[in-house]
Amino acid sequence: MKASDKEQFIRDSKENQELLKNKNSCDKYDYLTAVACGAIGGIIDILFVGSASDSILQKWADQQVDECVKKFAKFMGWKPNLSQQDNITSAIGFLERKYKINYDQRHTADVNGQFNMYTKNHHIMSLSHAPDFIGLFFSALNQFTATSSFIAEGKLITIKTDGSFELQGGDFITKLFCGVANWFGHIMSDVAGSSGSRGNGKRGTGIVIPFFELFQICNFGKFRVAKDKQTFSTIAIRAFESGYDLRYGLTMSVPVIITDLLIRFIWSLKHFFYHKCPFKELYLPVKTIVYE
């Protein structure tokens, strides 16, 4: 690091510290703004988000995900006729056929009766269906080793598949790339529900909110649900079965995003008009230090 760069870095640090002390300290109006924006976010959550069964915004979120799936399917080669242009079931079916994988077991019989599972919860029990790096890791592992990995009753369970599935590619890197592509493509085929569950105007069961699948490890506690007492992991699965999937996660993020944007917008207005801060200085630029 050059001596001139060090001096500039120290000078910028001191300027930023003074700015934080003198201009960025919160006053009563900042606190009132935060409370008001939080209240607005809460009202939006109550009136428009609600629960997964009666959410007003849920229909909008479902439509956005459906459109995303159809656009992805067309990008990957889906060519529907005129009557199927807006048919989400057709788009999902195309992706399911294109991105077949070996870990898509759906019923108790498919896992040799080792644990109970059915179509509404296999997306949360199968780790490879998770839209996060845990799902990516287990998807690659399952495709390379002809296995399927699940969490059931707080335990990691791995079963062997029939072995008919084989990754394309002549070397490890190529097969790994194909495995990642299969994982993402299959995630896109499931994010809006399966083709079988979307018939007759049904919503279907999507995929989990990232890392939500880890709640299945929490196989403890006795929480009362109606007349029954159930573990935390069972409650997590039941919540997913009731519609708390990634699409509902997008719905829940709406009031959070609105609250954050409102706070930032009002903060900018206050600093621009009240503190007479130039617009270009509202957000400090990040200076790049070149190391040798």
Give an overview in words.
The chain has 292 residues and is mainly alpha-helical. 50% of the residues lie in helices and 6% in strands. A hairpin with a 2-residue loop joins β1 and β2. It is globular and about 70 Å long. The N and C termini lie close together (6 Å). The model is unreliable at 286-292 (pLDDT under 50).
Task: Report the total helices.
Answer: 9
Rounded average pLDDT: 88
Biggest β-sheet, characterized? 2 strands, antiparallel
Gyration radius, rounded: 25 Å
Protein structure class? mainly alpha
Low-confidence stretches: 286-292
Please estimate the helix content.
40-55%
Order of strands across the main sheet:
1-2
- General shape: globular
Q: How are helices and strands ordered from N to C?
A: HHHHHHEEHEEHH
Distance between the termini: 6 Å
Beta-strand content estimate: 5-15%
* Beta strand count: 4
